[in-house]
Specification:
GO molecular function: lyase activity
Keywords: Lyase
Radius of gyration: 18 Å
Number of strands: 8
Helix content: 40-55%
Largest sheet: 5 strands, parallel
Strand content: 5-15%
InterPro entries: ICL/PEPM, Pyrv/PenolPyrv_kinase-like_dom, Pyrv_kinase-like_dom_sf
Pfam families: PEP_mutase
CATH superfamily: Phosphoenolpyruvate-binding domains
Protein name: 2-methylisocitrate lyase-like PEP mutase family enzyme
CATH architecture: Alpha-Beta Barrel
Order of helices and strands: HEHEHHEHEHEHHEHEHEH
CATH class: Alpha Beta
């Protein structure tokens, strides 16, 4: 499948009220499992990929290693793949796009906080980055713009919500296909956010958030699990090892 066809197929899966569900993968094996379970696309998790490669999240993974991991995921499945690329690893937008397209990926996440300091980036600066990525990629990549206000901000929740909406609409105007207000979880606020933003909205599914059915009812178009599947797999492996070390049955439970 060509890049443009793969990106078009991924873009078409973003349907408000009938969301694309993405149990994020971290390697070829987990990607195959996601596709075999019937999910129509695969997303990577930067945190899960980084940890599986022996690094930490926050752009500590050398970009060549991260892109090589994305390429392995793409080769492992026949469905579109979207890559979590943090804030782009400091690459110029045109180079970022060129190197990502070379992996065969159909989309990417870009976040709007600085991986080094944890501070929110200037909204205009982030919009310029997204616009440059869109200009370099044309229709060949689905751009998911992460909005980190609820992850980074403190203080008045109403002001945080308004700022998140402002950023989301600014990023959509810059060319993002979808916006991702990570950690937004309250059902009322999710519904208000969907209504206030001109475009598809991605929500992170984790303990404490509404379930898939409720998020669909609220008009969400994309649901990600982040590093949730990876963390669950690690926890299961740790439990098996503890049981084995204690003389128990590692396969029980």
């Amino acid at each position: 499948m060509t890049s443009s066809r793969s990106a078009a197929a991924l873009r078409a899966l973003h349907r408000p009220g009938d969301p694309l569900i993405l149990p994020n993968a971290w390697d070829a094996g987990s990607a195959r499992a996601v596709a075999a379970a019937g999910f129509p696309a695969v997303a990577t998790s930067s945190a899960a990929v980084a940890e599986s490669l022996g690094h930490t999240d926050g752009e500590a993974t050398p970009v060549a290693e991260m892109l090589a991991a994305v390429a392995r995921v793409v080769r492992a499945v026949e469905v579109p793949v979207t890559a979590d690329l943090e804030r782009g690893y400091g690459l110029p937008p045109a180079e970022l796009v060129e190197r990502l397209l070379a992996t065969g990926a159909a989309g990417l996440n870009l976040e709007d906080s600085d991986p080094g300091t944890g501070r929110l980036c200037d909204v205009d600066e982030q919009a310029e980055l997204l616009a440059a990525v869109r200009a370099a990629a044309g229709p060949d990549l689905v751009v998911n713009a992460r909005v980190d206000v609820f992850l980074r901000a403190a203080g008045d929740p109403a002001r945080a919500f308004d700022e998140a909406v402002r950023r989301a609409n600014r990023y959509r105007a810059a060319g993002a296909d979808c916006v991702y207000p990570i950690l937004l979880a309250d059902p009322e606020l999710v519904g208000r956010f969907v209504a206030a933003v001109d475009g598809p909205v991605n929500v992170l599914l984790r303990p404490g958030t509404p379930g898939v059915g409720e998020l669909a009812r609220l008009g969400v178009a994309r649901i990600s699990l982040g590093s949730g599947v990876y963390n669950a797999a690690r926890a299961r492996a740790a439990g098996m090892l503890d049981a084995l070390r204690g003389g128990g049955d590692p396969f029980a439970g």
